[in-house]
Write a structure and sequence with these properties.
The structure holds 2 protein chains of 2 kinds. Helix content of chain A is 39%, strand content 24%. By secondary structure, chain A is α/β, with parallel strands linked by helices. In chain A, helix 3 packs parallel to helix 5 and helix 9 crosses helix 10. Chain B has 2 domains: 154 residues, no CATH class; 63 residues, no CATH class. The radius of gyration of chain B is 22 Å and the shape is globular. The N and C termini of chain B lie far apart (82 Å). In chain B, 18% of the residues are buried. The chains are: A alpha/beta, B mainly alpha. At the A-B interface, helix 2 and helix 3 of A face helix 1 and helix 4 of B.
């Protein structure tokens, strides 16, 4: 559903993303893990069409992002790490505008907006200005906008940041439910517990390259760890941060 | 799924303005009254000033007409420069530095519609002040000259393209510069261009002073004539000599 082929992004002489290939299947939750500065957000922004790759190809629902950006973007829901929301709009207005951006007809907008507000427990705030929302509520609103147009695939950058346990649980449930309905979810995260708990497969990126790829157990085997070992220690082994973990343990 | 026309992309700003009006906070009403009153007083003063000058100049037959045309030329020339520069700065903000760009660029909006919406926003932001300032002045002149309805129709037909074309040129300039330099560096570059623009205006005025008598220029200058006197520099020796003779 999301296919990334030999993706490269260069800033002058610096190569932020160095030949990444990924494939997120329908109904799969794919974890995209890596240390800070590894190239996760750059890759996510290229998939969302916010950055132009230096080379490589991105397909969303078999639509080439470069050749047919509108079709590819219509099939994708994108949740950035620092989302923008119009603070002076109400939650209902924001979702209505979002629906219009994705070409929803006027007839079924209101019912779909209500459906999403109910799903993300925001219905009672429908007519409140977004500026009065907490960070968690804004995060949930952004997520509801990403799922509003019934995308085939969703790319989400750091979904759990700033959410309270209840909000985090809600998001996990929604992601699972969407995945059961066949939506492909590519999730970039630092929260390895979430990745271990939710992802069918993970890709670990470092210095712009994928260094490990597969199910969580396959990645653990790749790192020479037992399947009981926590993903955090596997991640640190693979990304060269094991010395830091030892310091932590002392 | 239908594609919305480009004005749809301007809706959040319209809704936000409506929400601001609907949900008044403490002190908003007072602020509205104070600034609204100032606006009305300024507009009335502009209207009356333009009306008074026009009726006074009407007493001087051909010379009065000439001075009125000269005054209007200065007005349009000044605003032309203002609009072009405002277009440069505003388009930098609306096309490249605006907060909602990531939201819109990630959605399936055709590049053409995106450009149209951003350009409409640039024109609105860059030219509303000029239009609001010019309207009472031009109406004052029309009333002072007892102009027919055709004058007002011509005024509208002139002011609309007048407020769009310089902004379009300014925007084109910004788009060109940003395509050559990164947006953040372009901001510094545009500041330098602003300085260059001011120098160009001074040079233009000095050039004008060679063909138009200095006294006429000073007379037609809409504000403090000492400022223009300083900009033009000391009179050229042969003219100073001529005046002494």
């Amino acid at each position: 559903m999301i296919a990334v082929q030999d993706l490269v992004k260069e800033y002058g002489r610096f190569r932020a993303v160095d030949g990444i290939s990924l494939d997120v299947r329908p109904g799969e939750i794919h974890g995209f893990l890596g240390p800070n500065g590894a190239g996760k957000t750059t890759t996510m922004r290229m998939i969302a069409g916010l950055l132009k790759p230096t080379s490589g190809r991105i397909l969303v629902d078999n639509n080439d992002l470069e050749r047919d950006p509108e079709a590819a973007k219509r099939a994708l829901g994108f949740i950035p790490d620092r989302p923008f929301i119009y603070d002076k709009l109400t939650a209902g207005e924001f979702l209505t505008f979002h629906a219009g951006l994705y070409g929803f007809g006027n007839g079924n907008v209101a019912s779909r907006v209500h459906e999403m507000l109910d799903l993300f427990e925001l219905r009672q705030w429908e007519d409140q200005l977004i500026e009065s929302f907490s960070h968690g509520m804004k995060q949930r609103l952004v997520m509801s906008s990403a799922f509003l147009h019934r995308p085939q695939a969703v790319a989400v950058d750091e979904p759990m940041v700033g959410l309270d346990p209840r909000g985090a649980r809600l998001i996990k449930d929604v992601f699972r439910r969407m995945s059961e309905r066949g939506v492909a979810i590519l999730m970039s995260t630092h929260t390895l517990e979430v990745a271990q708990e939710m992802c069918h497969r993970v890709s670990i990126i470092q210095k712009g390259r994928i260094i490990a790829h597969g199910t969580v157990d396959e990645v653990k085997q790749m790192a020479g760890s037992s399947t009981d070992e926590h993903l955090t220690s596997v991640f640190l082994k693979l990304t060269g941060g094991s010395a830091l973990q030892e310091i932590d343990e002392i | 799924m239908s594609t919305q026309p480009f004005p749809f992309l301007l809706l959040p700003h319209a809704w936000a303005s409506r929400n601001r009006v609907r949900r008044r906070e403490k002190g908003d009403l007072l602020r509205g009254i104070v600034f609204g009153s100032i606006g009305i007083v300024v507009s009335a003063a502009l209207f009356y000033g333009a009306y008074w000058v026009t009726t006074q100049l009407a007493a001087y037959e051909e010379f009065g007409d000439y001075l009125l045309r000269l005054g209007l030329s200065w007005l349009f020339l000044t605003f032309l420069a203002f609009l072009a520069f405002s277009g440069v700065v505003t388009s930098l903000s609306t096309f490249f530095l605006s907060d909602d760009l990531r939201l819109l660029m990630a959605s399936p909006v055709a590049a053409r519609r995106f450009f149209q919406a951003r350009f409409a926003r640039t024109v609105g932001s860059a030219s509303w002040m000029v239009v609001i300032f010019m309207a009472p002045v031009l109406i004052g002149i029309g009333v002072g000259r007892c102009a027919p309805y055709a004058f007002y129709a011509t005024t509208i037909a002139t002011v609309v393209p007048f407020s769009i074309v310089p902004v379009a040129l300014g925007s084109a300039c910004t788009l060109f510069v940003v395509n050559v330099f990164p947006a953040k560096r372009a901001r510094d570059l545009l500041m330098l261009m602003g300085l260059g623009f001011a120098v160009a205006v001074v040079l233009l005025l000095r050039y004008a002073a060679r063909s138009v008598p200095r006294a006429t220029l000073l007379e037609a200058w809409p504000t403090d004539p000492h400022l223009l006197d300083r900009v033009l520099g000391p009179p050229r020796p042969e003219r100073a000599q001529g005046r002494a003779d």
